[in-house]
Amino acid sequence: MEAYGRFAGVYDIFMDNVNYGEWTDYIIEALVQDGIKDGLVLELGCGTGTVTEMLADAGYDMIGIDNSEEMLAEAMEKRAESGHDILYLLQDMQDFELYGTVRAVVSVCDSMNYVTEPEDLEYVFALVNNYLDPGGLFIFDMNTIHKYRDVIGDRTIAEDREDGSFIWENSYDSENALNVYELALFLPREDGLYEKCEEEHVQKAYSIEEVKVMIAKAGMELVAVYDAYTHTPGDENCERLTFIAREHGKSAENDYHGNIPERARHTEE
């Protein structure tokens, strides 16, 4: 089942409880404090472009990357309405490519949790480091083991709206720290009936220590870990964490910076 297929068209409706404005203000504050007041900024897993648009409103030259055509179609509709000169790229963030470097990379709404193999996440971090300007910032959030295991794991969440309904079933695999979302959407048709659509989403939980090690191996330095979008130090008891890392030159261990090595993918023999 494809993730973010038909769901893309109603994603913003069902996500209206997320305070993207506060998240974006937090990101802008962190960027400005580090002297990044304008210039190129990349959003990985940009989805329907809500945060991308807000950062463009703040004066940043935005690039958005997502691997869902349907989500990017929604983002491009917003771009047409706002008139912002945002570059959207249909790419997998696990192997993205840019023409040059950017001042900052951001990723929100647990996009990094969709990278379910540790070596793949380490590679994403290496790519980020490669495309950051010297001293550039990487700001991203992640759901925690605590959230998947203790808060939403093995729970069913349902919601009924005028524009559609959903049933969201969670199943947490503690051995592999994987959370599977089985999502059933019921969307209205023109004839007054409802069409059922099903999607499956898989996310992986990583410990703070695992993420710290990956950041260092990628050649970045960890600036801070916060309880998401606050200035309270984060720990494993938080449900979501915000990580701030800085480009720190070449990784002595992996020689990633400026020279991304070829790697074997899990699908290869």
Automatic annotation (TrEMBL):
Residues 41-136 form the Methyltransferase domain. The lineage of its organism: Bacteria, Bacillati, Bacillota, Clostridia, Lachnospirales. Transmembrane segments: none annotated. Gene3D superfamilies: S-adenosyl-L-methionine-dependent methyltransferases (2.20.25.110), Vaccinia Virus protein VP39 (3.40.50.150). This is Class I SAM-dependent methyltransferase. Coiled coil: none annotated. Keywords: Methyltransferase, Transferase. PANTHER family: TRANS-ACONITATE 2-METHYLTRANSFERASE-RELATED. CDD domains: AdoMet_MTases (cd02440). It comes from Blautia wexlerae. SUPFAM superfamilies: S-adenosyl-L-methionine-dependent methyltransferases. GO terms for molecular function: methyltransferase activity. InterPro entries: Methyltransf_25 (IPR041698), SAM-dependent_MTases_sf (IPR029063). GO terms for biological process: methylation.
